[in-house]
Structure formats: structure tokens, C-alpha cells
Amino acid sequence: MASAKLFTLEQVNQHNKEGDLWLVVNNDVYDLSSFADMHPGGAGVLLAADIAGQDCSTAFFSLHRSEVLTKYARLKIGRLDTPSPAPYPILQPGELSPVPYAEPDWLNPSFRSPYYNDTHRSLQRAVRKFFDEEVKAEARVHELSGERPSKELVELMGTPQWALHQMRMGPGKHLAGLTLPGGVKGEQFDYFHELVVIQELCRLGAPGYMAGLQAGQIIGLPPVLNFGTPAMQKRVLPDIFAAKKFISLAISEPHAGSDVQGIQTSAKLSEDGKHWIVSGMKKWITKGVFLPFVRLNGSSDLPRLAPRSGYFSDYFMTAVRTGPKSLSMMLIERDDTVETRKIRTSYSSAAGTAYVFFEGTKVPVENVLGGEGNGLKVILSNFNHERWVICCRIARYSRLMFEETWKWAHLRKSQGKRLIDQPVVRNKLAKMIYKIDMGQAWLENVTYQMTHMSYADQSALLAGPMALLKTFLSRSAGEISDDCVQIWGGRGITQGGMGALIEQFQRTYKFDSILGGSEEVLADLGVRQAMKRMPRAVL
Ligand code: HEM
């Protein structure tokens, strides 16, 4: 800020009353004269003798997230002429957090890891900077307002320069010939690169927005990649990777969740045998439809919303009963016979969760993936990757909650002591650290196995370990969330403000313990898979 106007602290001291109120935060001078009456914490606190006209960085950072300064940058009028070292350094876009355990060990410059090489590191640096600079602000605002991710941003993410929609599909020939962020060649891309992209996105702390951004495609597109004909791939993939079109996975129904055998949506073959005619309904379909809202640029600090049609999935990868004992997966294109309706969940509406209704929808027989009656095979082939993505996600969200809570425990004083000085708080933090680091280490081990196995072998050999890993991570997330809320107190159950991410996590971590198979189902699957490998000889 070379051209900033400079003030002495004595000059700032003069502006210390109602209607003429300045103060200093992190060496920046703010004029709050007209903002004081709108200050969410009230005008009174700002007019206190130790605040008005003073350097109040310590008071500020014990009550606000640093993002408040970005949001209210318009109140900044200059800088102190003799700055003191900033007591609360704010991370620049792309920087690693200096908070202990806030980053996975492989990002600690003093540590080594057998799993990551220079290509993973350069990709990590590139995407972190991009997410911090281009995505973070929108993600946090839209998470709260329920708005869809903006068209401009999803399209930018789909440009060949960023190729983020392609990377979220994992390694494969869809990346061939591309030069990815950080100079990584598409052919070098492995599951650790994908893990890096997922975990960097999670740092933004906006789970509903993140689901609305890419979740439909991550679970809805693999059948096209793995079972689609070349003609289907040519027609569908480029538009989805460029974010011109969107796809959702449509399996669950009011009577069938993880239990795909209970699916009731059904289809009859047309008389000429060229189409399936589909009728039925699907529930909890991510990205099915977004709230028809758009933010208006009003003077209010809170987002104001007004009706407008939003964009939504153009394709539904749908599980359909094609006979009494026959389940098929088909790619259904949205037309007038397909209706979507918003479902409100504890996630942000930015996820676009919806009901999908099919009423006599005509689907060309060529749109059946993997052959008629092979729906279960197609669904199962997808599950491992979906569960692994969820594992990457919970592991990183849990770490972010730890970072927030660790910082808070250093800031917050109770009965004259910082929270971190209380053994009971340190004990809770210790439990968080070992759960987070155990989860990440197990996740990296499973990921390493994936890099050395075919897709089919992953399903056969890793379904059990993956199911147990997901159960461990989502159970741990519940315990971490609970301990975080206890440390944050009222702020952990208050939307917005210092504890915003903690409140959001305790409201949303359950998604990961249900989606892709509930904890109970997966724990049982993990054990049953191990039972199959039990040799008779040892009994
Ligand atoms: C640049 C100066 C400031 C701005 C832009 C600002 C803005 C805000 C905002 C947006 C909130 C709502 C909560 C949040 O989003 O974090 C808030 C809350 C609050 N602010 Fe400020 N504030 C400033 C300085 C101060 C200072 C110097 C104090 C001194 C004590 C203060 C005391 C409070 C209090 C007590 C709350 C309520 C916190 C709570 O509910 O936990 N603010 N402020």
C-alpha cells in the first residue's frame, strides 16, 4: 500500500468521539464515524476510552475474524507513520498456515513424506493461491446466502489453464495432453494430486458451496467415463469439463437410500424398442436445482436476495428399474418431463439439493450404461472413489476446525487465563490432533494403494479398508466437532462471527457420516469384507 496516507498515533487519538471516530488495527487507520451506529457489536464498545482513537488490534482480533477487515476495507483511510510489528499477521493468498498441525505433515518444510513429490508440491502451491484469490470470498458468502456458485467462476475453473473439473475426476485419459496448474503433466496426475485438490478446496470452509460446485459431476460422471460409448463421451464430457453443462447422480429415493435394491423409479421399453420411458422420483440429488436467487448490490452489508432462474443439472445419471429383477443406469437429459424441486437440508442451499421427478421421460436405449440390467455393477464401481473423496474431505475439514479452535484457545481468556492454559482444554486439543493425524496417515496409505491398483482391484481389495476409514473419519469428525463447540461456547452455536466455521461444521459434518454409505453400514461392510478373507486353516 505504497500510496496510503500516513498518520501519527497522536493524530488518530484526536478522533475519539461519536461522529468523529478513528482507530487502528494492524497499523491500518479506520474511520468508523458513520459505521459506529451500524457496528454489529454496538457503538458503545467503539467509544470506550481504550478503543476510540487508539490502536485496538488486540481487542479487534479477540472478537473478529480477519475477513471482517477485507469486507470493510472501504473504512480504511491510511496507515500509521511508524508501524509496530503487526501483532496478528494475516496470511497472504497461497501461504501455508504457521499454526501447529494446521497443515498435513507433508506440507511441513522440516518433514519428509514418501508419498509426495515436486509435482504434488507445485500443484498444491498453484491451486491454493487460486482458491485463496479467486474462490474463497465467493465460497464464504454463498455458503451463507445459499446462492449457486457463479457461472463466471465455474467456467474459469473449467478453462484448460485450471482444468479443475477434469482433475476432480481423478487420474485417467481425460487428462492426457493437458498441462495442469503448477506445470504438472496430465499423464503425471495420480490420486495424490487429486487428494491435494480436494483438500485445498476444503480449506475454504464452505461444504455446501463445494458440493454445488462439483459434487454432482464427481459422482455422476464416472459411469460416462468408464462405461460410456465413444459417441456419448464426445457429446457429454467437453461441455461438462468446460462447465457449460452440469450432471447429477440420481440414485436415492424416499424409500431407498444406501439400499439401492429398494429403488422404485422404473422404465418400460417403447413399442419400437428405441426408448425407455422412465417414471418415478429421486430425492437428495445434489446440484439438482439451485435456489432461484441472486444477490443484489445493495448498500446493506447482508446479502439481499431476489428471484431469478438459476442454472441446474442438464443430465441425471439415474438408477432405474428396467424389469422386476433388473436395475439399469441411464443418462437422462433434462426436458419438459423432468421436474426438480428444492430440498432444504442443514447444508447450505448452495449445494442445490433437490427432488427430481420423471414423468414419462423418453431415454434412448443407447443411454443405458454398462448394458441393461447391469446397474448395480455400474453403481458399485463408483462407490470406492466416492467414499475416498469423502474421506479426503472430512480429514481436511476436521483439521480446519482444529486450526480455528487452536487459535481461539490462545486468544480467549476466561477467569484471567487463556483457554490454552487450562489442562482440560489442552486435553481436548490433544485428542483432536491425534485423530486428525491418524486419519490423514491412514488416508495417505489407502491412497498409495490406489495409485498401484487398477480400478477393478481397488473395488475388490480396498472396499473394506475404505469403508472402515470413512467410518473412522466421520466418527472422529463428530467427536472433534463436539470438543470444538465446547471450547468455543456460545460462538460455536452462533451463525456468523468468530465461531462461524465451528457452528457450520457441527451442523454439517453429519453429511459425511451418511452420504456414500452410513457409518453403521460401512463399519459392517468393512468387517464382512475381512471375514471373506479369513482362512479356515486358522480356526
Ligand atoms: C475496523 C473496525 C471494526 C469493524 C469493521 C467491526 C465489524 C464488526 C462486525 C462485522 C461484527 C459482527 C461479527 C463478525 O462478523 O465478526 C462485529 C462484532 C463485534 N465487534 Fe466489531 N468491528 C470493528 C472494531 C471493533 C472494535 C475495536 C471493538 C472493540 C471492542 C469491537 C467490538 C465488537 C464486539 C463486542 C462485537 C460482537 C462480538 C460477538 O458477538 O461475539 N469491534 N464487529
From TrEMBL:
Pfam families: Acyl-CoA_dh_1 (PF00441), Acyl-CoA_dh_M (PF02770), Acyl-CoA_dh_N (PF02771), Cyt-b5 (PF00173). Keywords: FAD, Flavoprotein, Oxidoreductase. One of its GO terms (molecular function) is flavin adenine dinucleotide binding. SUPFAM superfamilies: Acyl-CoA dehydrogenase C-terminal domain-like, Acyl-CoA dehydrogenase NM domain-like, Cytochrome b5-like heme/steroid binding domain. The keyword Oxidoreductase applies. One of its GO terms (cellular component) is cytoplasm. SMART domains: Cyt-b5. Residues 4-81 form the Cytochrome b5 heme-binding domain. Its cofactor is FAD. GO terms for biological process: fatty acid beta-oxidation using acyl-CoA dehydrogenase. InterPro entries: Acyl-CoA_dehydrogenase, Acyl-CoA_DH_CS, Acyl-CoA_Oxase/DH_mid-dom, Acyl-CoA_Oxase/DH_mid-dom_sf, AcylCo_DH-like_C, AcylCo_DH/oxidase_C, AcylCoA_DH/ox_N, AcylCoA_DH/ox_N_sf. It comes from the Eukaryota. The keyword Lipoprotein does not apply. Transmembrane segments: none annotated. Belongs to the acyl-CoA dehydrogenase family. This is Acyl-CoA dehydrogenase/oxidase. The lineage of its organism: Eukaryota, Fungi, Dikarya, Basidiomycota, Pucciniomycotina.
